[in-house]
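[step 3/7] inverse_fold.run input=structure_tokens len=102
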């Protein structure tokens, strides 16, 4: 009985894990002359495609997010006049290889 319960639990877990698309951390920015309505439309479509916005920038037009390939394709497909720039989110240091500030 315990083996049957464990097997059933394992099968449910395996099917749930397979259904989740891998996500990567990205930063999506737009040209400064992009209207706010275009940015809002892009964020709404991005969330509808399964993307998660983790931070919205105030000084630049853009946001940081975790996204599947499908969500990123959605954002790229929306860009006609105002193309988004999508790059992988990464840590940047202001130090040289010796640990001195630049």
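[step 3/7] decode complete -> sequence:
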């Amino acid at each position: 009985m315990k083996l049957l319960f464990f097997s059933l639990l394992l099968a449910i877990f395996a099917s749930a894990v397979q259904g989740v698309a891998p996500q990567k951390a990205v930063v999506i920015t737009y040209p400064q002359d992009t209207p706010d309505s275009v940015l809002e439309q892009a964020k709404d479509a991005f969330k509808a495609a399964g993307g998660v916005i983790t931070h919205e920038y105030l000084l630049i037009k853009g946001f940081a997010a975790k996204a599947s390939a499908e969500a990123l394709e959605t954002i790229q497909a929306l860009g006609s006049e105002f193309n988004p720039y999508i790059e992988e989110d990464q840590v940047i240091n202001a130090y040289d290889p010796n640990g001195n500030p630049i």
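[step 4/7] annotate
Strands lie at 24-29, 52-56, 62-67, 85-88.
The CA atoms of residues 53 and 78 lie 17 Å apart.
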